[in-house]
# Entry
Amino acid sequence: MGQALGRGWLARGQNPAGLVAIEPNDVMARAARDAGIPTVRLLSQVDAAFQPDWVVLAVKPQVAASVLTDYARFAQPATFVSIIAGTRVSTLRTLLGPKAAVVRAMPNTAAAVERGMTAAFAGPGVSTGARSECTALLDAVGDVAWIEDEALMDAVTAVSGSGPAYVFLLIECLAEAGVKAGLAPQLAQRLARQTIVGAGELARVSPEAAQVLRQNVTSPGGTTEAALKVLMASDGL
# Structure
């Protein structure tokens, strides 16, 4: 996800000289360099005089405690943006220092193609200006929405964080149903994928609610209505 952000910034004209990625994994580091992102293996390889405006924390939750304390040196004036799953701002400030300004963000996997949905929460010390700048940074990989209560991150995870997996399952089910009805697997996959893409784009650009869009394509007594009755039954979706 950190690489997706970096690629998005470069695509928007960010000077690569203003970026440094710290990636100890050789495969991931090579991918970052191939994307045009300057990369080193260790924080100790970063010039001691380097003082970034922003530090994106994109490590696995299980290694956060052993890694992040070394980044406390960047606190003030830098603002931290954490995309570490399930890690609260209070925990991050314990590791980065009590005065660290931390934004907690939850992008989803569609950020990899710049169509993501990111929810963000600004912790103590994050200025209004920093919040606006952070919106611009996260907007490089999709849409951005701010929440004022960090506890809502659990709900965000259930909707937009895990949401792509639900959609992928729907594609699987549609394609499988097509194959069972006699379609060739490749055609069934194509129909299912493009149907989701098209419906998603229509939902994005239409001023109408999803319920109205659904009703618009549901003819009384038709096959769509029959299928929806099954899906919307008490033991359906």
Observations:
- The longest helix spans residues 185-205.
- The CA atoms of residues 176 and 206 lie 29 Å apart.
- The two ends are 30 Å apart (CA to CA).
